[in-house]
Amino acid sequence: MTSPPKVLAERREHIVVLTLNRPAARNAVDGELADLLGGHLHDADCDPGVRAVILTSSDPRSFCAGADLKAVTRGESIAPSRREWGFAGWVRHEVSVPTIAAVEGSALGGGTELALACDLVVAGADATFGLPEVRRGLLAAAGGVIRLPLRIPPTVAMEMLLTGRPIDAERALAVHLINRMAPVGGALDAALELAAEIADAAPLSVRASKRLARGVIEASFDEQWARCDAQVRALMASEDAKEGPLAFAEKRAPRWRGR
How far apart are CA 144 and CA 150, in angstroms? Predict the structure, then answer.
């Protein structure tokens, strides 16, 4: 029996809806999902008829649980074939088409980083956002440590990064992590309304506006990504970086050694 695709793509006039579809794993990202998602985003960006892309989930409990740590402990690569696209084929994928995250349930680790990589974020009232990497001996290296302090007040970003504690949708709206909060189950509808507003505008103007605004916001990203990559290489060589995912897979508390 053929397994359903891990990413679903649906065209609604000028809007493409991409749905993470790995509910049994709470949409944790493995290599196959990353390739599919990156490929769909590339296709949408190359299509002049597409005026907005929405990223959402088929699982109302979880937008995305981040990296598939079980795959990592098995030694599998979770990177896309086009490594320049970054985590999930998305977070370093430079596109001109506007992107909107429609978040229901938990967006943790790479889930929050996917939302941060989108231009706009709409969340259901039960949504939560968090970067728990420090509790796994890892680093929020898929843009979390770079984008979060740019998106929200640095004091709030630092607390989230250093404690790993999540925040709820109401708090996320208050600190401007998200643009709009919808009723539970209403994130996609709210995102479609926002996408329709974008689609009504002149498409060339919208894409040019995004490219220029992104350039201003992310002017120093090349240097920051290089520094982030260097920290990842050093951290991933540590015993703690192996212990964190292993403890998660074995459902026990990690035993940190600080080396």
Answer: 10
